[in-house]
Design brief:
Blueprint (H helix, E strand, L loop, with lengths): L12 H19 L5 H13 L3 H14 L5 H13 L4 H10 L8 H13 L3 H14 L5 H13 L2 H14 L6 H20 L3 H14 L2 E11 L2 E7 L5 E2 L11 E4 L10 E6 L5 E11 L2 E14 L5 E8 L5 E7 L20 H16 L25 E10 L6 E10 L12
Length: 429
Amino acid sequence: MPVAPSASVVSSPDVLHARLERAKRWRQRFESNNVTAITIEVVVADLVKSKQYEELIACLEQAIISGEFIEPWMHEALALAMESAGRPKTDIERVLMSSQDLIDADVESTMKLAAYLAKFERYDRAIEMYRQAAFLNPQSPEPFVFALELARRTRNPEAVVWSAPEVVAYAWGKDREPLRLKAEQAAADATPQLMKEGKIAKALQLQEAMSKARRLDLVVRLEWNGQGDVDLLVEEPSGAVCSMSTPFTPGGGAFVHDGYGPRQANCYDEYVCPSAMQGEYRLRVRHIRGDVVAKRARLIITRGKNTPAEETESQTVVLGQADSIVRISLSQGRRAQANADVPKPNKTVNRRNTAGTAVIAQISTAAGGVIPNVGGGGAVGYQPVISVISEGIAMNAMATVSGDRRYVRINAAPVFSSITDVFTFSFVR
């Protein structure tokens, strides 16, 4: 039979007596035959609406102890109710940790528990939950990113040792650059702290791991001169193509820069693959528009970047009507196979789970708080991200005036776009 977390010692006898009486009343009610899952949800919703948090705590504790109508949402609701009632954080932590027996042993559930623990300032426990989530799915970057944030906030060098190198290895690309800088700074701060604490082996482990994380198995850079636009597309051994439209691939590739003329500093495309697969890579160079000096571009291929065995070669590519294809091989790749998108099993969402989610939202709103997202404590759980997507017909034009100023040549590039469908997706590394 499930057991509700025990209460902390209460100094006031009157308060303790009142709690015992409430527990007795609710226990007697649950022992009757008139209780159903629906009536529990109705009663809990009424208690939330009237902000009777002590009654709500007693109700949920007895529901958990009874075992017959127990649901995972009850632990979350109980923790929020205890926070609203001003109960000690140690009691709240005990409630959340006891919910582990009921939740699924998957990354999403474990990270949700970690987020609640962080919300209630149980940071060490939250970091351990993120570490468990990372163990369940090492290819998911989120546990490492969120654990690193808590480690930086609490100055926990032990957590930095295992999280910072993973974040550095993952955070390549323009949008991920701030993450990489945070990880580098966290490692730089943790190293002297570990040395000061006498943990020399840990400090050396962190330095070695960070050095490996900075390694790039393959870097391809395409450069040109002029006012034109040239695109680089990289087909990996797995068959995935990394480009401006598909900047991240299951093979670990990341398209980090898409450039165009006329500013020379911007005339380059760049592809990086920190942990690459061995085999043949097909580099496709495509002239999109505009004038390119001598109708030539240069490919700079670097293998094993940031290692003693770094090798760099360059090739000149002639631009024409058709794409130019350059084949290169990589024999020192560290990735065994491409990441596979494993579909999650469909779970039956019954009415009780839906109602439980609504109850949790009601408690949080009534208490003036927020529901944590899977990322960390105190963040808004459902925050919309607004993006503008163009639809219809657009045209870009570039005019070139002849040297004698008698002729003007216009290169027009019409774009026809339409929104056909919308899909959701997860990060891949």
